[in-house]
Amino acid sequence: MRERVRIAAVDMGSNTTRLIVADVARDAAGALTHEVLERRTTITRLAEGVDARGILLPLPITRVRNALVEYRAAAREHGAVFVLATATSAVRDADNGEAFLGEVEHGFGFRATLLDGTQEAEATWAGVTSDPAMAARAATGRGLLVDIGGGSTEILLTDNGTIVDRHSFQLGGVRMTERFLAEAGDDAFLPDHAEAIARTRACVREQFAARFPEPGPVDLQLAVAGTATTVSAILLDRPAYDAELVHGFRFDGDDLAGVIDRLARLPLQQRREVNGLEPARAPVIVGGLLVLAEVLDHFGLSHVETSERDILDGIALMAGRIALEEGITELPEPHGRTVC
């Protein structure tokens, strides 16, 4: 049985479509590790319009398809023998989500699968703890992990390294922007739009209070995905995103409030130019940050620490396990041109 395999994993998220190419190894005890060869991120905003219309729209599908064309080429260039493409909130909520996944398999030769909430939580935690130092820290005490995406927010509670509770909220940067903040205008969220921001936070606060009415103290406070890592990158104020500095960076509620206030007052074009903020993320970043602010407030977190390892690393481990168990040795050709 082969104990090492080169794979690619794709996370078709609600706001971003991301790629990781990695070598996955399995030791004698069956534990998996991965060595990353390449990562890519493309803002595709697949969740655009899903909250209001309940379907994946043609333009977002096209943006994802264009990213997948590039990702397949990268996987082949690196010699990956298997590509696992997963989808989460946006596809779960869309009536045409199953058809979309079928087109991904047909058109690209990937194995496409929809993760439910439990699978998403487990993949995220596996990705975060694929960092040995983080795994060691998580092995004792109580932890909280928040993952804010475009369409949903996942909160995981852990005890001595094991997930003990989790919930997926219909709260995310794209969803909050479309529900509450788009009416404030794309040019700026100026002080006269404070009511829209207040209504956004109230919606988030109500859902957190209903699901976690009496949150207890936590020892390890982690945040993953683009909303949180963008805060770290903005506070670092580097001209280029530095993943090594973002990984393990900590910020508190006052730091976050300052970032929200700064971005909310900037016209969209000026917001796109802020160091640490990916320009394509600028239209929806405030919505995601408001969710994050409520996480800190509701759970009484003194700070959060951002991790560059997240669900995509967990998906890579899933892909490696599948490829090793099934003895996959060659990336299949697409069946035909996708109609996505």
Kindly describe this structure.
The chain folds into 2 domains: about 5-120 and about 310-325, Nucleotidyltransferase, domain 5, CATH 3.30.420; about 135-310, 2-Layer Sandwich (Nucleotidyltransferase, domain 5). The protein has helices at about 50-55, 60-80, 90-95, 95-110, 115-130, 130-140, 175-180, 195-210, 225-235, 245, 255-265, 270, 285-300, 310-325, and strands at about 5-10, 15-25, 30-45, 85, 110-115, 140-150, 155-160, 160-170, 220-225, 250, 305. Helix 5 crosses helix 14 and helix 11 (about 255-265) packs antiparallel against helix 13. The longest helix has 21 residues, at about 60-80. Strand 6 (about 140-150) and strand 7 (about 155-160) form a beta hairpin. The chain is globular. It has 14 helices and 11 strands.
Structure, briefly:
With 340 residues, this protein is of the alpha/beta class.
Write the layout of secondary structure elements.
Blueprint: E1 4-12, E2 16-26, E3 32-43, H1 50-53, H2 58-78, E4 83-87, H3 89-93, H4 97-108, E5 111-114, H5 117-128, H6 132-138, E6 142-148, E7 153-159, E8 162-169, H7 173-181, H8 194-211, E9 220-224, H9 226-236, H10 243-246, E10 250-251, H11 253-265, H12 268-272, H13 285-299, E11 304-306, H14 311-326
